[in-house]
Amino acid sequence: MVGELLVTKSSPSPFLLKTYMLVDDPATDHVVSWNAAGTGFVVWQPAEFARDLLPTLFKHSNFSSFVRQLNTYGFRKVATSRWEFCNERFHKGHKEVLCQIRRRKSWANKAQPVTQTLKESDEDQRSSSTNSLSSGYNILMDENHKLKNENKVLCSELWSMRKKCKELLDLVSMYATSSSNKEEEDDQRPKLFGVRLEVHGDKERKRKRIEEVSESARRILLSVNANK
After folding, report:
1. Is the four-CA dihedral 60, 65, 66, 70 of positive or negative sign?
2. Can you state the angle between helices 202-226 and 113-186, rounded to 10 degrees?
């Protein structure tokens, strides 16, 4: 029982462990790193830190929430021109003293030492869950924006196809009108009171003319498709 009590008391908060891991990773020093003295850390790129690093351990991308969590553990912002935070027990190379950092309580009665760490962990998880909802909302908004852009592209392509179809119909109509006028000029059938008289072979000639117009329309359509 005594051994379990000591292990529980010496376990740092998950929030502190995760923060230490982010700061101590040399691969991301351009985003977050220890200060020159190793007595605090600096978030050099808050936007990249929130977007790329926070979700890897905290399941959210809310930088303001992260700062509020730091404040509850006694961290202080010590610079006005950059996001630099310090805590007297959060130093480079001294991970073993993280267990001495405690979350500030708003109530007078302190929790029992045996259950204190468990409660802190539960509060961290609830905070992460709330912030994950906010992150999910942001993802949905991004997806909605992408869908709107794709819809604009599709509408533009549809308008272009409609325009080509109209041009095709205009060409067919113009061709049919021109052919009809030429046929009228070449028609040598006699007239009676201004009306052409039907003669043998007229029906066959009309059928062939319809086939010619249809074939011309098909060729024009193939030409439009070939130029896409």
Report:
1. negative
2. 150
Q: Residue written as tokens 């024009």? A: 220
Whether the pLDDT of residue 103 is over 60: the answer is yes
Opening angle at CA 25, ends 22 and 30, nearest 5: 90
Residue 202's CB is within 10 A of a number of other CB atoms, namely 13
Which of the residue ranges 36-45, 135-144, 190-199 would you say has the lowest mean pLDDT?
190-199
Using one digit for the tens of pLDDT, what is the confidence trace for 22-48? 999 999 999 999 999 999 999 999 999
Q: Give me the count of residues in the chain.
A: 228
HSE (side-chain half, CA atoms, 13 Å) at 117: 19
Distance CA 196, CA 199 (A): 9
pTM: 0.45
Name the amino acid, one letter, at 120.
E
HSE-CB at 187 with a 13 A cutoff on CA atoms is 18
β-sheet bridge partners, residue 33: 42
- 192 in the Ramachandran plot: left (φ > 0), alpha (ψ -120 to 50) or beta? beta
Count CB-CB contacts under 10 A for residue 77. Answer: 14
DSSP secondary structure letters along 122-148: HHHHHHHHHHHHHHHHHHHHHHHHHHH
Q: Which of 86, 62, 64 is nearest to 73 (CA)?
A: 86
**DSSP code of 191?**
E
Residue pair 63/49 in contact (Cβ under 8 Å)? The answer is: yes
